[in-house]
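Page 37, continued from 36.
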């Protein structure tokens, strides 16, 4: 009798489990929010809107972009990290807010590497080292030689401490043993104006912002930050080619979810985003902006984020970077 009772309990429990599983609704059953921790118009915002629009069609539920700018991306990232882990609040996380801010900003109130989990990388974009059109240097090597000859006289701009553009310049200065001055700006517009006027000697810009200035002859490209040359600038060497082997700093972005989000939700999002990124029109739009579109699993994206974190920890420690630099 005891064996029969035990068997019946197992059978009943099994049916109950199946019933519960069958009763669980498909994801999503209501609108999904993708938080972007910066104002509209940036690379991350472009990624989020591109993916959100397509996911709305695929899931037959609104997927809306929610811009929450402030404090180098920490405001929006905190909201995402503390959100309910049900898959209905996601973050478009980028290089800075995921791997860098935690090293430079104290008491953020959250740890992005512990409280957010990678879902899928959407794109990885190169940076271009720009100089004034009439600058007396035309290559990275010439820039390095002149900067070494005038320690403390060369300045470079960025849109804030800890941004990929800032840290790319820091890496160049560290690798080439340069003494340069960092000039942070609140926006890329004033920065580009000063660069064109020769008040700055260099700026590491996103490729999408750089190309119109290069094509218009207002600025010139000295090098690119990726291991391979850009297809749209085939004659511009990589910085790794220019005497700094292994130099690789990019602006990447992808979807993150609060830790504890169901694996089925993460797998669904990863599968659908990879599928839409493989569509010729989407891939073509991104590659036209020199954005690499790698197919990736959540595990592969997590491994990449980990490697980026290690790289920036090493750079920030060796260069003694501070948030006010």
């Amino acid at each position: 009798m005891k064996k029969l009772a035990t068997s019946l309990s197992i059978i009943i429990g099994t049916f109950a489990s199946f019933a519960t599983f069958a009763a669980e609704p498909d994801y999503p059953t209501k609108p999904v929010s993708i938080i972007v921790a910066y104002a509209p118009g940036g690379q991350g915002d472009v990624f989020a809107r591109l993916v959100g629009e397509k996911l709305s069609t695929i899931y037959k539920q609104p997927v809306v972009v929610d811009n929450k700018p402030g404090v180098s991306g920490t405001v929006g990232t905190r909201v995402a990290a503390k959100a309910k882990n049900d898959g209905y609040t996601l973050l478009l996380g980028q290089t800075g807010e995921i791997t860098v801010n935690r090293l430079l900003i104290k008491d953020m109130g959250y740890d992005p590497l512990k409280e957010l989990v990678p879902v899928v990388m959407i794109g990885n974009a190169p940076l271009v080292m720009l100089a004034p059109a009439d600058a007396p240097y035309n290559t990275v090597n010439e820039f390095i030689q002149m900067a070494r000859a005038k320690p403390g006289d060369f300045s470079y701009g960025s849109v804030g401490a800890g941004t990929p553009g800032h840290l790319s310049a820091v890496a160049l200065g560290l690798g080439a043993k340069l003494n340069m001055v960092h000039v942070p700006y609140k926006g890329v517009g004033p920065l580009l104006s000063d660069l064109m006027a020769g008040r700055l000697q260099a700026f590491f810009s996103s490729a999408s912002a750089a190309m119109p200035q290069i094509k218009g002859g207002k600025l010139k490209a000295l090098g690119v930050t990726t291991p391979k040359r850009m297809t749209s600038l085939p004659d511009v060497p990589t910085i790794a080619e220019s005497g700094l082997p292994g130099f690789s700093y990019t602006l990447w972005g992808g979807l993150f979810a609060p830790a504890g989000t169901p694996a089925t939700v993460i797998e669904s999002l990863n599968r659908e985003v990879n599928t839409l990124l493989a569509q010729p029109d989407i891939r073509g739009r991104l590659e036209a902006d020199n954005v690499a579109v790698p197919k990736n699993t959540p595990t592969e994206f997590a491994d990449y984020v980990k490697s980026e974190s290690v790289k920036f920890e090493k750079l920030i420690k060796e260069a003694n970077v501070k948030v006010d630099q």
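Residues 47 and 145 are 38 Å apart (CA to CA). Flag for discussion at group meeting. The longest strand covers residues 116-132.
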